[in-house]
């Protein structure tokens, strides 16, 4: 089938490429000419394992194209996906202006001669957005145009997006239009995954409810971690023990500095705002947010207790990305932590396997900070090492080398990557989350 992806950001590029990979013909549209120029030159604007090769092979096979023209995209795709940003407004509610604009732009390019089009929302949007999209397209399109509107939320995780897209746990398709639903089922035929068909409102709600539940699991284990610390228990063992119950599962029970990234913080805020607007305040999610914010304060207190003051201390910071296997620093807890330590007068030597460039461009880190690709180099003369992102390189670090390089071998592990006994044997004074400190 012919597919158009409007918005060639993280979701548009990865999912457009995967649709091409399973045999569809895909045109990716973006209003950012620099991004499209890069892609036309064979450069990939984001770091995502496996993506560069997949883009290249599908471009070479003639199944994947890039353009800045929405009109070209609307003429091309029987199915037109919307994958544009849905950022938060200051009050937490969702800014839907990008979606509204795309709905108008699609409408203005539709003609009765083009034939039936399915307009699919892949962006994360509040329940009832599909109804608004349908109204907007109807209002701005010429008479006689035929279209259906679908919600098809995206569940990919950054860092393993290609695998998540090619082998999803489930595909959710929501629409009140039977013709649109049958085209969507045909589109997803090459994927081996259960397909859940719902009405459009339920599909939209599934996305916010799923992300909120995952964030709830993270805050839950972080709250448990605090109880573990107070009782000399080990949160890793507790997570294993509760996770072995199939009804609970071990995934998303990694205690740490809390969740960040471009999705969870904004989507939890959005779901709180949506529920409130519908007259159903969701206090539980406010508590999830509170616990998440508190994790950072608790961790900083832990460092403060040992260092006494941050001023004039050299701290090695391992991690800038919001999680492993990505160069994305949007809403990164590591960046927030770095800002707090810089504000208190520490000097930082930061490293990250992929996110140094994005962190520099992000521009939020000002003060005494240097960046280095050499993770051991950041330790020379350091008063403390702070681990903020769960990269495997950090988990597999040479502990003796860490101890050798530092001025005082104090390690604060915000992602529980190291083994406390191994750290102790290597001569490190080691603090982590929800595990008794080993001195
Ligand atoms: N990043 C993720 O992991 C992820 C996963 C699932 C869902 N989502 C959701 O998907 C949506 C997109 O997220 P993202 O991370 O891909 O965003 P992004 O910022 O990486 O990309 C969005 C792209 O849309 C383009 N754009 C904006 N207006 C446009 C227009 N009128 N026409 C054409 N292009 C336009 C921008 O230039 C940008 O390249 C959001 O709603 C997000 O919540 C994101
Ligand atoms: O046990 C865990 C798991 C994750 N995290 C943190 O949670 C955040 C989000 O991680 P993850 O969910 O893996 O990354 P995202 O790429 O943001 O993916 C989430 O957000 C996407 C956008 O909506 C959804 O599509 C995905 O299903 C959903 O997992 C990161 O800061 C992680 O460090 C933890 O602290 N503990």
TrEMBL record:
EC number of the protein: 1.1.1.22
Pathway this chain belongs to: Nucleotide-sugar biosynthesis; UDP-alpha-D-glucuronate biosynthesis; UDP-alpha-D-glucuronate from UDP-alpha-D-glucose: step 1/1
Keyword NAD attributed: yes
Superkingdom of source: Bacteria
Annotated Pfam families: UDPG_MGDP_dh, UDPG_MGDP_dh_C, UDPG_MGDP_dh_N
Family assignment from sequence similarity: Belongs to the UDP-glucose/GDP-mannose dehydrogenase family.
Protein name (record): UDP-glucose 6-dehydrogenase
Organism: Haloferula helveola
Gene transcribed to yield this protein: nsd
């Amino acid at each position: 089938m012919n597919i158009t992806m409007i918005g060639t950001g993280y979701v548009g590029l990865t999912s457009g490429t995967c649709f091409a990979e399973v045999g569809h013909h895909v045109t990716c549209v973006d209003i950012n000419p620099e991004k499209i120029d890069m892609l036309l030159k064979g450069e990939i604007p984001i770091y995502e394992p496996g993506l560069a090769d997949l883009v290249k092979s599908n471009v070479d096979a003639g199944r994947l194209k890039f353009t800045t023209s929405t009109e070209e995209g609307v003429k091309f795709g029987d199915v037109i996906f919307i994958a544009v940003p849905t950022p938060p407004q200051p009050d937490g509610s969702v800014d839907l202006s990008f979606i509204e604009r795309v709905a108008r732009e699609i409408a203005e390019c539709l003609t009765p001669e083009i034939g039936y089009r399915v307009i699919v929302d892949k962006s994360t949007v509040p329940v009832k957005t599909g109804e608004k999209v349908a109204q907007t397209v109807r209002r701005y399109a010429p008479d006689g145009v035929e279209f259906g509107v679908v919600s098809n939320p995206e569940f990919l995780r950054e860092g393993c997006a290609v695998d998540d897209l090619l082998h999803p746990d489930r595909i959710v398709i929501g629409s009140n239009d039977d013709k649109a639903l049958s085209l969507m089922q045909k589109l997803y035929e090459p994927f081996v995954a259960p397909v859940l068909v719902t009405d459009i409102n339920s599909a939209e709600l599934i996305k916010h409810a799923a992300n909120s539940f995952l964030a709830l699991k993270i805050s839950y284990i972080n709250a448990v971690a605090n109880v573990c610390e107070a009782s000399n228990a080990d949160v890793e063992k507790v997570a294993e023990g509760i996770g072995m119950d199939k009804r609970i599962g071990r995934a998303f029970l990694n205690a740490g500095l809390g969740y960040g990234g471009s999705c969870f913080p904004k989507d939890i805020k959005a779901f709180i705002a949506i529920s409130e607007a519908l007259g159903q305040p969701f206090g539980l999610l406010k508590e999830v947010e509170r616990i998440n914010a508190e994790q950072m304060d608790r961790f900083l207190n832990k460092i403060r207790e040992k260092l006494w003051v941050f001023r004039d201390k050299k701290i090695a910071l391992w991690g800038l990305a919001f999680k492993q296997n990505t160069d994305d620093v949007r809403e990164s807890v590591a960046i927030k932590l770095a800002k707090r330590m810089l504000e208190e007068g520490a000097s930082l030597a930061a490293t990250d396997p992929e996110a140094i460039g994005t962190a520099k461009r992000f521009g939020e880190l000002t003060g005494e900070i240097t960046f280095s690709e050499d993770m051991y180099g950041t330790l020379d003369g350091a008063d403390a090492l702070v681990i903020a992102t769960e990269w495997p390189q950090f988990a597999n670090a040479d502990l003796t080398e860490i101890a050798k390089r530092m001025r005082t071998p104090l390690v604060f592990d915000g992602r529980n990557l190291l083994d406390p006994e191994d750290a102790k044997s290597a001569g490190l004074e080691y603090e982590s989350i929800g595990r008794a400190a080993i001195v």
